[in-house]
Write a structure and sequence with these properties.
With about 400 residues, the protein is α/β, with parallel strands linked by helices. It is built from 12 helices and 14 strands. The longest helix has 21 residues. Bound molecules: zinc ion.
Amino acid sequence: MHQKIEEKMIDYLENLAQCGRTANDGVTRRLYDVFWCDAQQMLTTLCKNAGLDVCHDKVGNLFGRRQGSNPLAKSILSGSHLDTVIDGGKLDGIYGVISALIAIEMLYLEYGQPDKTIELIAFAEEESSRFDYGFWGSKSFLELADLREVSALVDDEGISFLEAMEFALKGLDDIGNRSYKEYAAFIEVHIEQGQILEKSQKRIGVVEQIVGLVCYEFLLKGVSNHAGTTRMDERADAMLTYAEIVVSVTAYAKKEGFVLTFGKIKCTPNSSNIIAGEVFATIDMRAPNTQKLAEYAQHVEKIIYTLSKNNNTTATIHKWLNQAAQKFDTTLIETLTLICEKKQIPYKKMPSSAGHDSQIIAPYIPTAMIFVPSIKGISHSPKEATHIKDLVVGVEVLMELLYELAYK
Ligand SMILES: [Zn+2]
């Protein structure tokens, strides 16, 4: 069995990696682009070869169904997203889709028809790598998104969201209807994208929750002036304020143990011999405890205002995202830990610091996530990798869980 799963994993991963392969041996597969369409076709073929009934919903989420014998029971859903970041790896997202496919196939070979229907899902989009909109697949599945929200969006080539969608979906002739209310559980298998499992020498992460996320944009205003004639004590230098904020807030994050990133900066006028009059920048901060995160955020705002004032500059802060931590289903977490203990697989209960489709699904369907280790924690890169034996263990744990949920 182990050998068979390994062969299928290598084969399917390699097939899907061809859909959008880049010069760096990475993958770029963005929502509704030609490579996304290729991947849809590839996956449809693989699902049909495995005997699954395939359909797409109206935004292009793909479903592969193994019908159960009990027509009254709710179905069990497993999968992840089909799209990638630009020049991403071969595992993020698609590994969870392939894991679901292999698990459904192998369970059927071993035990025949399940009692409850098991269904694979490949979400159309999660990464927001083409349009400025994330979780389009899972949000549409839950009826939380609609076309009005995306109708004004264009990609970096000026193609509108709706145009792109029409192009991609016209090739799909199997549009069906799926309601999230049909499902009793959702399981997502995913690479960790961090180093917690590798460093603790565990092979499975049982994810308890997705961390909370607060995002800021802020604008610091000073006075642009001559780099030579303006004395240091006469300046209102927005860049200096920014630098002090970065140092001070980073030290605070380290002391309190949360993660924080200054990822984007725009300086005006951005000239080597002019004092910066304005700095626009962003902060992305994450912590497992929603209450604590709110306290950290408040303190970060205070630091920004205080340092701005000390430097004769002003600050305007805009908190544009405030997402609470999302806990997963405790019964499913318990079942997963029992499976790992029974199979003697070293595991760790852990939070996820990255966002996933599961956090969107969890308030509506009992949800669990299974992590496998990422080598050196690298992800969103062509160097993204996981040892094949760990990829296989992820499938084996998923199989056990699907067996518990759909066969017993
Ligand atoms: Zn992902």
